[in-house]
Design goal:
Oligomer: single chain
Helix content: 25-40%
Largest sheet: 8 strands, mixed
Radius of gyration: 24 Å
EC number: 7.1.1.2
Protein name: NADH dehydrogenase
CATH topology of the largest domain: Glutaredoxin
Binding site for FAD: 209-224, 468-478
Catalytic activity: a ubiquinone + NADH + 5 H(+)(in) = a ubiquinol + NAD(+) + 4 H(+)(out)
Low-confidence stretches: none
Distance between the termini: 65 Å
Number of helices: 13
CATH class of the largest domain: Alpha Beta
Disulfide bonds: 336-339
Shape: globular
């Protein structure tokens, strides 16, 4: 089952096992069962601390990872290879007694959770967001005996995924009910379970010299550059890493030939933590006001003070804002073709958007689905010609230009898209089962209404030093009126804003 280089790497990890573990396998006579048995037996042959038992679990085929003499609560209903191989390796190590690499505060919060929590996560092995969710819930299962978690490969358990109407991954169910769709960190899970930080945790914080709002590439860069000046620096992040966490392949970050968004986000966080920066993760900014100092109010009611502030709240996927979009999100309306595409194998889908991201999505989906319909509002596609040429060579793609999406139809799942021909005014319906929205970004600046100058797109207007219309208030990244939105540009603007803030401090 395992290729030579992966097996060599796994051998090194298995040397770190601390105690004996048991892999309990529930297998039938199907091909996936045979592959699971091959996998667990191959792993067991590589370490004397691993044994295999055949048993009957809730799902067949599946296997669980256990301490000797007990059921630990981690189950893989599928073959955890591809992006999920790391989830398997970490489960083996952590169940054996090796401590998970999370802050002690996270461990304490996890152990304090009371009540029974049975989590199930539907994944696809091509999903780059799924492993973080699987690994977070596995850690909670290791730390708390009242928590269990099952990873369910939707491709292997197609009937169950269909019955639960899973149309996007990761899809997390708690005690049988849908609980969360999309990427979620262990800190976010704890907060959602009522174990997150409260306003009281922020009452004793002294004022900052620079307070950065946003934890993406721009925010991380700004915080590092500020901290390197030896001034008191804090960073408030709703989700450290920002939209980079949802980016699959990064091949234009100079000096790094190729990487993935989650890896870059982790590297950013580790770099930030090398400095004396007060990182306040999972905190959403609500209001900003300038008095003697800037006062930043958080959603939890806490108020932070700072001499200067750098806004780097980034941007998010733009919605079509038509009936059915919000109601059918994760029920056929999706935003990540890499993650959710495999769930639509053999089905008819649509892509809304004719820019590079939309056409790349259509090309990707054409290799999986039965048919792809592209809907573009403008008379011509905006994508690069090389992408258009590739798209036009595909036999199962229809491109509709100069059309306005009016509604996404369906109740329990997407059944179609209604659009209007902008030239004739005629209304049409396309029957399909999935819609992928790819129409660009919108800046996360609504909470700053009336605070500073923004353009008609909502982007913050800044000068060459990153300064806004309010003295002492700076901005950087995808939330500003930059000509281009790129990771490397965001990092540069973060550094510029930090240097601008420092210059402001020494002059005022």
């Amino acid at each position: 089952m395992l290729e030579k280089d992966i097996k060599a790497q796994l051998n090194q990890y298995l040397e770190l096992l601390e105690n004996d573990i048991v892999l309990k396998v529930s297998a039938g006579s199907d091909k996936v069962s045979e592959d699971i048995l091959d996998l667990v037996n191959e792993i067991a042959s590589m370490s004397s601390k691993i044994s295999v038992e055949e048993t009957k679990l809730e799902r067949t085929p599946s296997f669980s990872v256990n301490r000797v003499g007990e059921d630990t609560g981690i189950v893989f209903a599928g073959i955890p290879l591809g992006h999920e191989f790391t989830s398997l390796v970490l489960a083996l190590l952590q169940v054996s007694g090796r401590a998970p690499k999370v802050d002690q505060s996270v461990i304490d919060q996890a152990k304090n959770i009371s009540g029974e929590y049975h989590f199930e996560t539907f994944v696809s092995l091509s999903c780059h967001n799924c492993p973080d969710v699987v690994q977070a819930l596995n850690i909670l299962s290791v730390l708390n005996p009242n928590i269990t978690h099952v990873m369910i490969d939707g491709a292997v358990n197609k009937e169950e995924a269909e019955n639960r109407n899973v149309r996007a991954v990761p899809a997390v169910y708690l005690n049988g009910e849908f609980w969360n769709g999309g990427r979620i960190s262990i800190q976010e899970i704890l907060a959602k379970l009522g174990e997150g930080p409260s306003a009281e945790d922020f009452t004793d914080k002294d004022p900052y010299d620079v307070l950065v709002v946003g934890g993406g590439p721009a925010g991380a860069s700004a915080a590092i550059y500020a901290a390197r000046k030896g001034i008191r620096t804090g960073i408030v992040a709703e989700r450290f890493g920002g939209q980079v966490l949802d980016t699959l392949s990064i091949e234009n970050f100079v000096s790094v030939k190729a990487t993935e968004g989650p890896k870059l986000a982790q590297a950013l966080e580790e770099h930030v933590k090398d400095y004396k920066i007060d990182v306040m993760d999972l905190q959403r900014a609500k209001r900003l006001e300038k008095k003697d100092m800037f006062e930043l109010e958080l959603e939890n009611g806490a108020v932070l003070k700072s001499k200067t502030v750098i806004i780097s709240t980034g941007a998010r996927w733009r919605n079509v804002n038509v009936p059915g979009e919000q109601e059918l999100k994760n029920k056929g309306v999706a935003y990540c073709p890499h993650c959710d595409g495999p769930l639509y194998e053999g089905k008819n889908v649509a892509v809304i958007g004719g820019g590079n991201s939309g056409i790349e999505a259509a090309i990707d989906l054409a290799g999986i689905t039965k048919h792809v319909t592209v809907l573009e509002f403008l008379p011509e596609l905006k994508a690069d010609q090389v992408l258009q040429n590739r798209l036009n060579s595909l036999p199962n793609v229809t491109v509709l230009k100069n059309v306005a999406t009016k509604e996404i139809t369906g109740t329990d799942g997407v059944t179609g898209v209604i659009y209007t021909d902008r030239e004739t005014g005629e209304e049409h319906n396309v029957e399909l089962e999935g819609v992928f929205v790819q129409i660009g970004l919108v800046p996360n600046t609504e909470w700053l209404d009336g605070t500073l100058d923004r353009n008609r797109m909502g982007e913050i207007i800044v000068d060459k030093s990153g300064a806004t219309s309010v003295p002492g208030l700076f901005a950087a990244g995808d939330c500003i009126d930059s000509a281009y939105n790129q990771i490397i540009i965001s990092m540069g603007s973060g550094a510029t804003a930090a240097l601008g803030a420092f210059d402001y401090l020494i002059r005022n």
